[in-house]
Structure formats: C-alpha cells, structure tokens
Write a structure and sequence with these properties.
- It is a single chain.
- The mean pLDDT is 94.
- The strands form 4 sheets. Strands 7-6-5-11-12 form a 5-stranded parallel beta sheet, sandwiched between helices. A 4-stranded antiparallel beta sheet has the order 1-2-4-3. A 3-stranded antiparallel beta sheet has the order 8-9-10.
- Helices cover 56% and strands 11% of the residues.
- It is globular and about 85 Å long.
- β3 and β4 (85-90) form a beta hairpin.
- The chain is of the alpha/beta class.
- It has helices spanning 5-21, 51-54, 58-72, 92-102, 134-152, 168-180, 186-189, 193-218, 223-229, 231-244, 248-272, 282-298, 333-348, 362-374, 408-426, 434-454, 466-469, 477-494, 496-501, 513-523, 525-535, 538-558, 567-589, and strands at 32-34, 43-46, 76-82, 85-90, 119-122, 157-163, 278-281, 303-304, 310-313, 321-325, 352-358, 383-388, 391-392, 462-463.
- It folds into 3 domains: 5-90, Arginyl tRNA synthetase N-terminal domain (Gyrase A, domain 2, 2-Layer Sandwich); 123-402, Rossmann fold; 411-589, Isoleucyl-tRNA Synthetase, Domain 1, CATH 1.10.730.
Length: 599
C-alpha cells in the first residue's frame, strides 16, 4: 500500500531532532496539519514544541528541519517558514502515485479491525408506550453512524439497544387501554402496534389532566399534588407494584401490548436502515440493578430511609442525594442502568461504553458514573455519555404525552412524498420503471433526512426543515447523491473495458491545480475519518463529503473527462472521477446513506 507521507515526515522529523539537536522528541509532539489555503504548502509542521530542544528561535528551528527534510525525503519539493510553522510542499508525482495505489481499494479510507477491546455503543433506547418520533430519529442516526465510523477506524463495535419496557410510563398506556380500549388490537384498528399503544399513552394524559383539574378546583391542590393523588395515577402506581410482584393478569396485558410495540419498532428500524447486535430490555436488567443497590446498602455505600427507600449521598461530589429504589421496592431508571452496565461489562469487557442520549440526561449520567465509582466498579471511568442537542421543527417543541410529536413513520412518508414531487418536477426519472422510481424516491427522501440531521454537530440543538433538506443544490443529501450518480454516468459511458485497461501514464506537469486539489481532498479522507471517530462526530464526515462533491463539480464544470483529446489526460480524469465516487460512497455509508448510480 502507498505509504502515507505524514508517516514518512513524522519519522524523519523525529530522526532529525535526535541527530541535529541530540534530544528525543516527546511522543505525539510531531504534529502535521493540512496547510491553510492562504499559504503555500501541503502540510504544516508546528515547530514550537522543539524550540527547547534546539535552543534556537522557532524560525531557525524550522529552517534546520525543513532543509534536512528537503535533503532526505525525495517526495518533498520545497518548504517555507512562517514564524513557528514549517510549510512543506510535495512533488505532484506523489499525488499521482497515491491515485494509482488507491484506485483499486474499494474500502479506501477504512482501517482493518484491530485486536483491541470492543466498544459498546448504546442508542435508540425507546419506551414501549409510544412510537419512535423525530427525537428518536436523531438518536438512532447518530448512534448508528458513530458505530459505523468507529468500525471503519478499526474498532470492534457492539451496537446495542436498551428498551425501556417497564415502569410507570408503560403502566400508563396499560391502564388507559384496560379502561378505555374495549379490547382493541392493531388488527382491529388498522394501526401499527406502537401507534395504537401511543394513542393510549396520550389518552391517559388527557384523562389525568381532567382529574387533576377537578381536584385543583375542589380541593385547592397544586397541579403536582393533584396529579399524584388522582385516581388514574393511583391505578398506574398500583399496576407497577403488581407488575413487579409478577401478577399474572398484569404481566399478560404487558406482554401483549409490548409485543405490538416491538413489531411496530422493527418496521421503523428496518426502513430507517438501523440495526443492533443485541437488544437489552429493562425488564431483564432491573433486577440485577436492584441486587447491586442492595449490596451497596450492606456495604454502607448507600443508605435506607425510614420509609424503606434507598438513596446515595453525592453531596461530597458536588451533587445531591439520589433515589435508587422507591419505598414500595420499585426501581427507577438509574437502577436498571446500574444493572445493565454491569451485565455489559461482564459480557464484553469493553474498553468503553458509549451512551447516545439527549442532553437532558447529563445529570443522570454524571450520577451513574459517581455511583459506580462509589461501588468500586472497574468500568466506572469507561462510561461516556454522548450528549446531543434536541431537534425542533419550525412550529416548535414536541411533547409525547400531549400527542404533538412528529411520528418517525409519518416523517419518512413525508420525505418520500417530497422527494417524489421534486424529482418529478426536475424530470430526472423519465426512463425509470415504476419500481425503480419508488426505490429512488425512498433513497433520496431518507438520504435527505439523514444528511440534514447528521451534518449538524451532535452537541448543538437543531431545527429540522423537511423542505430545505430535499434540495439538489447546496449542503444536502440529494446534492451529494446526484454528484455520485453523475460520476457513475461518466464511468458507464466510458465502459468497463476501458476502465479496466487504463494505466496511469500522465506526466506530472499535465495535472492541473483543480485536479491536484481534488486528489489532496480525497487523500485527507482517512484523517477526517480518524478525527470523526475521536470526536464522535458524523458531522465531520458529512461536511467533508459535501466539500468533496463541491470540488468535483467545479472540476467537472471546467474540464472535460470523456471529450478530452489527450487520451492520457482523459484516462487520468476517469480514474480521478472513479476514486471520487468511491470516496463519496464510503463517506456516505458511514452516515447510513445510500448513493444511487442513476438519478
């Protein structure tokens, strides 16, 4: 494989420091960056870390290193020094050699899996009382993309889902269905099971509001107190206790309704293109969490109040007291998170457990880590909460219990419909069969949705605008998909026989500035992937592939590929186009996005 120049220069700089300054460079101190566009050069070496070793000024230090690199590395063409920065330029031939080596690698940019400990990435984590909505979509797309990025960077990854299938919220849907459902089923209603159960979650909230309002007026109670003592909430609490005591009738309703929801989830996940290596259920992990909490009481790490509830005191950690088990013996969210973390560690011995969960749970995960530390769990420091911002729509925030959320299935339907309308207006599918058209509309619609969400830094809140996301121009999924299809069209016209027989023989001085710029951008893909893996940021991949497509379209606008009369240049441009398409495809695959060959 073509040795990357960063590796060559890093080794050379380390040797130069040893020989010229008679000192050893600290590990990681040789840092190469892409040269900023306003300066001449391909790579920039920051020399400030070596000034103490050289006992010279930054400029003198850079001159010594630059001169030795020029003498010893044949691909280095020239250098220039600006203050404490050494800008290094390479011969064009290096980039042409890179093209020759990379063109046959379908997995260009991806690393082989190493033997290190695995990483567990938990995402989705839905409740079985409602369908997946727009907020879940961001969670699923982020989690799945981060898992793909980590895998492509050489890590072994387990994608896991923890389904919150028990607790007071689940009991609310069950109570409402039992009281108001009259035996309705998904088959009878014609609805997906998760949607039907979600309807009863909203029904519970509406009925609860009426009861609470009545109590507030008649008993002069606060809203919070009225909700707690209302007959409906009391029924939900009773049902939760019955469930934990394994009451047969309660378990039968729970099993029936959860089964409906799982079938609905499976459909949504399949369409969204998301999968898991393992699915955990809170109902299967909370008991282990309870046993760990009880052990903590015995060891004096936790304490029991007079009412029987179990707490942890984190005031010395700058937090407060945290409930771990209720007085009636029922568990809370953190109980099952303690149990699940312990089970996962025993099963996989992971180097890290990444939880993709919204930023409203920052405090929760801070508490979880501190609780596990108090228990002396060896994996307490291996937990990382990938906190992401909320998704809003132009009309404002969504609320599940009020039924104002944007359903994930409905949103995907809307994306498909919008993709169809825009594609037909542009007249891009005149020679497609009906089946091909429908598949293309789905690919464009979902690509637009995924790209629009993933191009935003995960930490930021975002506004999702479906209409803006489906645009064949600008920083959108369809623009990138169309660029890939355009390149595939060029390659089809060239023909397989010609592509197989091309031997790169272009003279370095025949490659123009835009072609070399495109090659350099393709070359940087592995470095972008590495950074995206370190930062857990699909946005870095998304914005990289947009820049790549922009540069290709500029190149294609200015230069002909197939009509170029110089066959060596035409062949070179074909290979450059082919490698661009492969890099676009690989980049988009990390975002879970398909790129069509025809549009």
């Amino acid at each position: 494989m073509h040795e990357r120049v960063e590796s060559i220069i890093t080794k050379a700089v380390t040797d130069i420091i040893r020989k010229e300054f008679e000192e050893e460079a600290r590990p990681g101190s040789v840092v190469l960056q892409k040269t900023r566009e306003e300066f001449e050069g391909d790579f920039t070496l920051v020399v400030f870390p070596f000034v103490k070793l050289s006992k010279k000024s930054p400029e003198q230090t850079a001159e010594i290193i630059g001169k030795k690199l020029l003498e010893n590395i044949e691909v280095v063409k020239s250098y220039n020094v600006i203050k404490g920065f050494l800008n290094i330029s390479l011969y064009t031939q290096y980039w042409l050699d890179f093209l020759s080596a990379a063109i046959s690698d379908d997995g260009y940019g991806f690393s082989e899996e190493c033997e290190a400990k695995p990483v567990v990435v938990e995402f989705s984590s839905p409740n079985t009382n409602k369908p997946l909505h727009l907020g879940h979509i961001r969670n699923n797309l982020l989690g799945y993309s981060i898992a793909k990025i980590l895998e492509a960077s050489g890590k072994k990854v387990y994608k896991v889902n923890l389904v919150n299938d028990r607790g007071i919220h689940i009991c609310k849907s069950m109570v409402a269905w039992k009281l108001f459902g009259n035996g309705i089923t998904p088959e009878k209603s014609g609805k997906k099971g998760d949607k039907l159960v979600g309807d009863y979650y909203v029904k519970f909230e509406n009925e609860l509001k009426e009861q609470a309002n009545k109590l507030m007026i008649e008993k002069f109670m606060s809203e919070e107190d009225a909700r707690k003592v209302s007959p409906l909430m009391q029924q939900a609490q009773t049902m939760l206790v019955k469930w934990e005591n394994k009451d047969a009738d309660t378990l039968a309703i729970w099993s029936l309704m959860n089964g409906w929801v799982y079938e609905g989830f499976d459909e949504t996940y399949k369409r969204l293109g998301v999968s898991f290596d393992k699915i955990y259920k809170e109902s299967e992990t909370y008991l282990h969490g309870k046993s760990i909490v009880e052990e903590g009481v015995e060891k004096g790490v936790f304490y029991k109040k007079d009412d029987g509830s179990i707490w942890v005191d984190l005031q010395d950690e700058g937090l407060d007291e945290k409930l771990l088990l209720r007085a009636d013996g029922t568990s809370v969210y953190i109980t099952q998170d303690i149990g699940t973390a312990d089970i996962r560690y025993k099963e996989a011995q992971p180097a890290e457990m990444i939880y993709v969960v919204g930023n409203e749970q920052n405090y929760h995960f801070n508490v979880l880590k501190k609780v596990l530390k108090k228990l002396n769990k060896p994996y307490a420091d291996n937990i990382f909460h990938l906190s992401y911002g909320m998704v809003e729509l132009p009309q404002g925030k969504m609320k599940s219990r009020e039924g104002t959320v944007v359903d994930a299935d409905d949103l995907m339907d809307e994306m498909h419909k919008t993709a169809k309308e825009i594609t037909e207006i542009l007249g891009k599918t005149s020679d497609f069969s009906d089946d091909e058209k429908e598949k293309l509309y789905e690919t464009i619609g979902l690509g637009a949705l995924k790209y629009f969400i993933l191009k935003v830094d995960p930490k930021k809140n975002m506004m999702f605008n479906p209409v803006e996301s489906i645009d064949f121009n600008g920083n959108t999924g369809p623009f990138i998909q169309y660029t890939h299809a355009r390149i595939c069209s060029i390659l089809r016209k060239a023909g397989e026989n010609r592509l197989r027989s091309i031997f790169l023989r272009i003279a370095p001085d025949k490659a123009n500035e835009k072609e070399i710029k495109l090659l350099k951008l393709i070359y940087s893909f592995p470095a972008v992937l590495k950074e995206a893996a370190e930062e857990y940021s699909p946005a870095l991949i998304a914005n990289y592939v947009y820049e790549l497509c922009k540069d290709f379209n500029q190149f294609y606008h200015d230069y002909s590929v197939l009509n170029e009369t110089d066959i060596a240049i035409s062949d070179f441009r074909l290979l450059l186009s082919k490698l661009t398409a492969q890099t676009v495809k690989n980049s988009m695959s990390l975002l879970g996005i398909e790129v069509p060959e025809r549009m």
